[in-house]
Amino acid sequence: MRLFRHGPVGREKPGAFAPDGTMRDLSSLIADLGEATLGPTELDRLRAADLSALPEVAAGTRLGPCVARPGKLVCIGLNYVDHAEEAGMAKPQEPIFFLKATSAYSGPNDPVRLPRGAEKGDWEVELGGVIGSRASDIEEADALSHVAGYCVFNDVSERAFQIERGGQWTKGKSADTFAPTGPWLVTPDEVPDPQNLRLTLDVNGQRFQDGTTASMIFPVSLLIAYVSQFMTLLPGDIVATGTPAGVGMGQRPQRFLRPGDVMRLEIEGLGVQEQKVVAAGAA
Predict the structure, then answer these.
(1) Positive or negative CA dihedral for 49, 51, 52, 53?
(2) The CATH classification of domain 67-278, taken from the options 3.40.30.10, 1.50.10.20, 3.90.850.10, 3.40.190.10
């Protein structure tokens, strides 16, 4: 299934694609796509429903982030060899992870707003894994059974805040609008191998990132099991699994985001995001 959320900011409703490719509203079946509705039983109930009988979502309707109110946004750093090399850092021996503030969460096509004082805004196309059932200190062999689905995730960053201002990476990762997510939550039956997906990112029509999840240092299954050793993952939590080479920081000369830039992200089978960059204080 391809699931989504649609409508104005803060008032999104759940939706799904019917077999004929039309977008249908799920409000009569579930209240939202979130903690209470991402488990296997709930998803099986949606699969069994006659989606073509539900109200159609109007073309052009805004798409919100594909999961409601995640409890945690867990991001993996330096999980592609080529990205570690362009960052001038050694290949990690264990996964590196940090938390991104959930207040950064935004829709896949909403504007990305650079915060006051931003100098080095950057992009990172990533595969997001959405947790569907509670995962605490699980084994890697069981990890993917805890996944409700996959999505596109843009780990927008402010490198000066992240690297030059001291402390941890979180401060450069958590500005409002710095976590565009979606457009869809695609269930695992439509993603038979999360380690075989192409990821791309363009800025103003120029291709900067073009990679494959096959190049991950640590696969999705290991990442979820690893994170679960240190914290319980709950339904609706999102694990963003790292980015391939091609970020702005890695360009020669470096290339950072400016108001008016347009980012376009795509992951094979998971849809397309497009965000316009705006200045601090812009609507």
Answers:
(1) positive
(2) 3.90.850.10
How many distinct helices (H) and strands (E) make up the chain?
A: 5, 19
d(CA 273, CA 103): 19
- At 123-177, the pLDDT tens digits run 999 999 999 999 999 999 999 999 999 999 999 999 999 999 987 899 999 999 9
- Write the DSSP string, 101-152: -GGGEE-TTSPEEPPTT---EE--EEEEEEE-S-BSS--HHHHGGGEEEEEE
Q: Which two tokens stand for residue 256?
A: 């950072």
| Residue reference for tokens 């059974």 | 145
- Grouping H, G, I as helix, E, B as strand and the rest as coil, residue 174 is coil
- CB-CB contact of 135 with 235 (8 Å): no
Pairing, β 271-278 against β 112-113: parallel
Which tokens in the block code for residue 46? 């949606």
Q: CB count, 10 Å around CB of 31? A: 12
Q: What share of the chain is helix, strand, coil (3-state, %, to 5)?
A: 20, 30, 50
Residue (of 234, 278, 237, 274) closest to 257 by Cα position = 278
